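Handout, section B. The chain below has 228 residues.
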Amino acid sequence: RDALNKKHLSKRGTPYSVAQVNQCVCTLRQLFRYGEETGLLMHENPVQRVKQLPYRQKRVILPSNEQVEQLRLVLKSNSPDGLDLFDFLCATGVRIESSLHVYWKDVDTRQNVLHIDKAKRGGYSVPLFPALNAVLTRLKKPETQPEERITKVDSIKKTMNTSCRKLGIPRMTHHSCRHLFCTRALEKGVDIKTLAEWLGHKDGGVLVLKTYGHLRKEHSQAQAKLMT
């Protein structure tokens, strides 16, 4: 465990991150547990007592709204389909893996929700926010079929990396779009529990509060100045 985090290098030539090391520990623990359950392991699980490394939550750094618009213009010029994916991710907060399995038939106008069936913690739904409705209206063509995917490309990682570097703005990844969605929601006053449901979390907002608690405090202080 310690060697992975300090000595062994990943393919990028850097030590493995705390998250990667902890995933390795969990995987080994499950493998040895399987060995115990099936009678293949004749002694105590050697990984059971190995604790995971403490994880320090990183502060989320995102571009400003003006910088996001600059990025959108570059994406529009270089990759129109990439811009569609970017806007969809920012308007829904879904993970990139989930976006690959969202189809037009998942748009439920009767209940005013978009169903996300393939997700990390199980299926969930998000409301058809005005911003999301605008994106869907732009993307839907007269010949669009219910079985078609809403977004056409699987990744814009390289395009975003290159564009952010040229623009001189904070680096954005697919997951940054999810962070951006959360940040905008909190700035508009959406409560933690509701936001957690929109993200497909099942913990009632614990992870959201842990990740974005500082944003809520900053927004609270800004709103406090209105109380004269």
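Note. The longest helix spans residues 18-37. Compare this with the example in section A.
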